[in-house]
Design goal:
Layout: E1 4-7, E2 17-24, H1 35-46, E3 53-60, H2 80-92, E4 108-114, H3 116-129, E5 139-143, H4 154-162, H5 168-180, H6 185-196, H7 200-211, H8 215-229, H9 237-240, H10 242-245, E6 255-260, H11 269-279, E7 290-293, H12 310-324, H13 336-349
Parallel strand pairs: 2-3, 2-4, 4-5, 5-6, 6-7
Antiparallel strand pairs: 1-3
Length: about 350
């Protein structure tokens, strides 16, 4: 089982409702990168919990990134398709862990996906709708989503060029091992922090990733998949809420909120704007996704920011704002308390 982060407060009230926020990482798929982010999110949410309404947060590393979840006979990385299947399987197994309602399903489930995690989120929702499972996904929040034409982004163009090097993912994995094998753990962590400028906790996660058995290979192999697979919009109109706008009765259509970076090096501005124009909601089509563009200079890799940096708290608070928003427009995050109240009201309305 991959490493995971879980916040699961229990209500003694047998009639309490439970909402699960399930987080899907980007690539590299290490949940450790999101420790501070999810802790901040839990702090903001827990102050608003009541005896009759409880929110749980759960997230785990994608497979292949943690040595603990790689068997001795595993000799190749997981594909993007396998990661989607395994994430979907994990979502299906989520249950209230303890208390009067132990092992019962959650009343509400909200998925949050970052980067390629947003692509996995959309695939999970789409595939759940095509099964007989009674599980209902109430909403999805897609942070800095890479869901179409990834190879056209500035970083995608560069990475595609690197992929032309024969056996590039395996070679890079080997180079990382050769460079770091002789360094003690403390020296590796210090070196990573010095080179990347990451805060100590993030440098520790990165050092572990670089020294892992096949983490670098997994990240690059999966990224190569992303360049080839994340192309055209592949989801049907039901996912985007279009049929619902026409007056037909649609059940269990999750509310989707996209939060794009202003100049995201993993999302080309023109492909972002095309998606917003084609699929974004408006005052006359409120069942379509809300699509927002950041104005707070929050970067794609917001999870690597120090807790002391204002951007991380803004990135956390924007979840409440985004999930309560009704139209595509840029966002300014100001009052977290107001955003919390709006967030809970939105959940109640689902």
């Amino acid at each position: 089982m991959p490493s995971q982060i879980s916040y699961s407060p229990i209500s003694k009230n047998p009639n309490a409702s439970y909402t699960l926020i399930y987080f899907i990482t980007g690539n590299p798929g290490l949940i450790g990168y999101y420790t501070t982010f999810l802790s901040t999110l839990n702090t903001l949410l827990s102050s608003s919990s009541t005896p009759t309404s409880t929110i749980h947060i759960n997230g785990q590393s994608l497979f292949g990134f943690e040595d603990e979840d790689i068997s001795a006979n595993t000799d190749s990385p997981y594909t993007l398709e396998q990661e989607i299947q395994l994430s979907l399987q994990s979502i299906k197994t989520q249950r209230i862990p303890s208390g009067p309602r132990e092992n019962q399903p959650y009343d509400n489930i909200i998925l949050i996906g970052h980067s390629v995690g947003a692509y996995i989120l959309l695939e999970a929702i789409s595939r759940l709708r095509n099964t007989n499972t009674p599980m209902k996904i109430n909403g999805g929040i897609l942070l800095f989503p890479t869901v179409t034409h990834l190879a056209q982004s500035p970083s995608g163009v560069k990475f595609t060029s690197l992929c032309r090097i024969p056996n590039f993912p395996q070679t890079a994995n080997l180079v990382a091992k050769v460079l770091l094998w002789s360094l003690p753990w403390a020296a590796t962590r210090w070196f990573v922090g010095l080179v990347t400028g990451m805060p100590p906790d993030m440098a520790q996660v990165t050092a572990k990733f670089l020294r892992s058995r096949m983490g670098v290979w997994q990240a690059l192999r999966m990224a190569k998949d992303e360049m080839e697979v994340v192309t055209e919009d592949r989801w049907d109109d039901e996912i985007w809420g279009i049929e619902h706008d026409s007056g037909e009765k649609q059940k269990n259509i999750p509310k989707l909120v996209f939060y794009f970076g202003q100049d995201d090096h993993w999302v080309a501005n023109h492909t972002r704007d095309e998606l917003i124009a084609a699929r974004g909601g408006s005052e006359t089509s409120k069942s379509k996704p809300v699509m927002l563009i950041d104005e707070n200079n929050v970067p794609h890799s917001f999870c690597l920011m120090s807790l002391l940096q204002r951007g991380l708290r803004n990135a956390t608070a924007l979840i409440f704002h985004a999930f309560s928003s009704r139209a595509y427009r840029p966002v300014r995050v100001r009052n977290a308390m107001v955003l919390r109240r709006r967030f809970f009201k939105t959940i109640d309305d689902l």
